[in-house]
Amino acid sequence: MENNSENQDGNVCVEAKGLWKIFGAKAREVLNSDLRFETKETILEKTGCVMAVRDVSFDVKHGEFFVIMGLSGSGKSTLIRMLLRLIDSTSGNIYVNGEDICSFDKNQLMNFRRHTTGMVFQYFGLFPHRTVLDNVAYGLQVRGVSKEERYTKAQESIETVGLKGWESYYPSSLSGGMQQRVGIARALTIEPEILLMDEPFSGLDPLIRREMQDELIELQEKVQKTILFVTHDLHEALKLGDRIAIMRDGEVIQIGVPEDVISSPADDYVREFVQDASPAKVLTAGRIMDQPDALLYEWQGIKAALHILKTAKEEHAFMVGRNRKFLGLVTIKRLRNRIHSQEGSFTLKDALEPDIPITTPDTILEDLFPLAADTDYPIAVIDEEGKFMGEIEISSIFENMIQDKEAETDV
């Protein structure tokens, strides 16, 4: 087995390097000539070959939700099948944990598919004559796992996807969404490191599709798999993906986090592709936050705090403790009221405003609107450990909202 450890980042799970797939008798001839740079239409006309995937390279980190998206004919489904070697590449390499699976023999490839990867297709592929439990346990049965053990693991997966109580039913008794849950449970039961999902929700009606997307997000929080997910739906990609690779005519045009794809499209094709996507559903608090002009610390005295606020020409400022632990917001008005009341000694913490809105850096702009409408102060951005990261001015939120509406009007 060829090992790519010299170039492989330890956090990289899957790496594609220079992948090409050309269908047709003259595929190698096309690859080794300048014809490979021509359009798909020209190649088809001159050689009868179909250029499906053209010089694609990317990497996916352990635990990452990586979305491959594009319109019909973009090469996305061919690409994901190449990653399993259901379709062999014309040229290029595919590394999984540093090993080039393109060099695997038949037995190595079978073990790779059985133990490292799980696949979920658009069409559920369930056995109609098997119960839900037997469908979910099938992968372990193929491995030769005992009935007791495979049923135990299958039961755990069934409960994970929310189908407890349906074990003895047959697929014909289940809705489309439930059948897809069975397919996901079957993939999870073999405990794969990598899940490959090819348009798994595209056959479902819109409401069930949204529910399945939400459930997949929750599931990923529990299982933390490396997921490669193919879709033609931009909103699905923006909702699910940690990063998105956009394909056109077999090429990857842009790879980036959702908000970068929306705010900085690589070319006119991507720009047109994402023009209907709302930044309010993609931009995050971490992206639009700023650092405050003034910041107070809990150990500072009242007069020092007043001096800092006056110097910065601010009416209020956030206060933090050691290691920037967020404590709240102090206003000049409350400080002066405390001083004038002469109610004995008090600390800066005694002047904190109650009910100050806070958010996390991954909160999308759309979810900030209710907070913005309910306060006169900036919104504090706090990480999961309670550390202050920055602030968002209310005007910034509504400016982005207005820009979003103007963009919709222009379209």
Q: What is the percentage of strand-forming residues?
A: 15-25%
CATH topology heading of the largest domain: Rossmann fold
Could you tell me how far the N terminus lies from the C terminus, measured between alpha carbons in angstroms? 52 Å
Helix content: 25-40%
Rg estimate, integer Å: 27 Å
Number of domains: 2
- Class derived from helix and strand content: alpha/beta
CATH architecture of the largest domain: 3-Layer(aba) Sandwich
Could you give a short account of the major beta sheet?
6 strands, mixed
Give keywords.
single chain, 411 residues, alpha/beta, CBS-domain, 4-stranded antiparallel sheet, 39% helix, 22% strand
Spell out the blueprint of helices and strands.
Elements: E1 12-23, H1 27-31, H2 40-47, E2 50-61, E3 65-69, H3 76-84, E4 91-96, E5 99-100, H4 106-115, E6 117-120, H5 132-143, H6 147-160, H7 176-189, E7 194-198, H8 206-223, E8 226-231, H9 234-240, E9 243-248, E10 251-256, H10 258-263, H11 268-273, H12 285-288, E11 295-297, H13 302-311, E12 316-320, E13 326-331, H14 332-341, E14 358-359, H15 365-373, E15 379-382, E16 388-392, H16 394-410
Parallel strand pairs: 3-8, 3-9, 6-7, 7-8, 11-12, 14-15
Antiparallel strand pairs: 1-2, 1-4, 4-5, 9-10, 12-13, 15-16
Helix pairs in contact: 5-6, 5-7, 6-7, 15-16
Kindly describe this structure.
It is a single chain. This protein is an alpha/beta fold. It folds into two domains: 191 residues, Rossmann fold, CATH 3.40.50; 117 residues, CBS-domain, CATH 3.10.580. Helices cover 39% and strands 22% of the residues. Strands 6-7-8-3-9-10 form a six-stranded mixed beta sheet, with helices on both faces. A four-stranded antiparallel beta sheet has the order 2-1-4-5. A three-stranded mixed beta sheet has the order 11-12-13. Helix 5 packs across helix 6, helix 5 packs parallel to helix 7 and helix 6 crosses helix 7. The N terminus and C terminus are likely disordered.
